Each structure stands twice: as structure tokens, then as C-alpha cells.
Amino acid sequence: MTMQPEMKDLVAMNEFKKEGVLLVKNELNAISIHLLLKEINQIRQSVMIKINQMERPLRTYSDIAERQPGRLDYRCGFTSAIFNEMGESIIQLVRRLSPTIDFRHYWGAIPSLSGSGPTDMHRDVYPMLNTLEGNDLDELDISLPTYYITVLIPLVEITLENGPTEFIKGSHRMPVVDSTKAEIYAPLLSPGDIIIFDGRTLHRGSANRSNQERLIAYMTFLANWYHDQTFTINDYLFPEFAIPGH
Ligand SMILES: O=C(O)CCC(=O)C(=O)O
């Protein structure tokens, strides 16, 4: 029996609430993926012209960081109308997953070159009261409805070799987690699939052991009341592209 769309939504919402991470197959079609790739490759050209003349690995800027040598994360230059069009179905999905929160969002991309190393296990949010170090959160942070969501949008096949993102399911509901003992969820993906996760979920990018680049676009959704330190504690490398309101 095929599941009705409302039922499918309900199952997905429950899974997201329980696990803090949700895989959605075939969310974007091949044309969308092609357009995103084209646009992101253009942004990359202007980014690379500037950073190729700089000392590497780059230090962390508000709009670009080099998490490991060869593993960039940038969120500047995503101004084309394409991103509004391509993001619309994902925006609707996020609204359904956390309906009590008003979100703003921005786009970014993570190209990780062949041979680039893994990132540390981390959460995308910081403890609201700024009282804790490392990955620990307070009961206060855990008690809130989902207020920060990251959506990973692979633009190439994600394989064991080029480095799937690793998650600890359920960690969005745990203030303290021993990540060395936790079970890891690392789904392999095709372009068109997306992974949606609560910003409190522990995760990390794994090493790219293939001989090709791994390219993932992402959308980050933040509650309108959330102060995103990412955009305030560092300088901008591309102030001309600064995202207003973050
Ligand atoms: O590159 C990846 O696989 C993980 C990305 C990541 O760590 C993040 O979005 O915070």
C-alpha cells in the first residue's frame, strides 16, 4: 500500500523529532541540481581568485572558513534568484518540521578536495547561556523546539570514499554525549537527496579519500530570535557580499 502524502509527512516529522536527522530521497530534480552546480561554480571562481593569493589554510572569517586544509565552507555570494527558486520546497519542508518557529535562512557550500581531512564532531548551535565549553548543552537548550536546522544538499554522489557526513542520532535531545561511544549514522546520498538536521545534533564531515572533490551545498535556517555568532565574531573576507540581517 502506498502512503498518503499527509501520512508520509507525519512519519517524517516524528522521525525528525526523535532522531534529530532526516534523510529525504529525491527532493530536488536533475535540473535543479544542474542549476545549483552551475551557480555555485561561478561563486567559487570569485572566491578562489581572492583566496589563492592568501595564506592557507585560511583563518576563520564570518563568511568563509577552511575547516581542514582543502575543506572550505563558504556562505558568501549566494545572491542569484536561482537560490530562492531552488530553496522553496525545502523552506516549506522546514516550516512543517518546526511549525512554531519563524525562520530566516542563508545558503552555503562545502567543497572538500580530494585528500582533505575530517572535521571534529560538533553541534551547529552554541549553549544559549554561554556557560559551557565544547559540545555540551544545558537543559534549557534541549527543552526548546527546533530553532536551528541545517539542510545538506549533495551536488555529487556521496560515497564511503569521498566522505559522508556522520551523525549521532538523538544527540539533539542530550545535553552531554560521549561521542567516542555513540553509534554513527552516515548515509550515502545521490544528488537530489537531502539531509535535514537539528543544529543540536552532533555531526561531522568525514575525510575525502577519493581522488575527486566532494561538493555539498547547504541551507541553514535560524529562528528569527537566534543570535548567530558565526556572523558577528569574525571579520568578513567578502564584506561586499555580507548577508544582511544575520
Ligand atoms: O561537510 C560535512 O559533511 C559536514 C558539514 C558540517 O559539519 C556542517 O554543516 O556543520
What descriptors fit this protein?
246 residues, alpha+beta, Jelly Rolls, 7-stranded antiparallel sheet, two-stranded antiparallel ribbon, 9 strands, binds 2-oxoglutaric acid
The topology string of helices and strands comes to HEHEEHEHEEEEE
Largest sheet: 7 strands, antiparallel
Structural class: alpha+beta
Compute the CA-based radius of gyration: 17 Å
What is the count of distinct domains? 1
CATH classification class = Mainly Beta
Count of distinct strands: 9
* Portion in beta strands: 15-25%
The ligands found in this model are: 2-oxoglutaric acid
At the third CATH level, what is the topology name? Jelly Rolls
What is the number of helices?
Answer: 4
The residue ranges in which pLDDT falls below 50 over 5 or more consecutive positions are none
Order of strands, main sheet, comes to 1-7-5-9-4-3-2
Our measurement of the CA-to-CA distance between the termini, rounded to an integer number of angstroms, reads 45 Å
Helix content: 10-25%
Name the CATH architecture: Sandwich
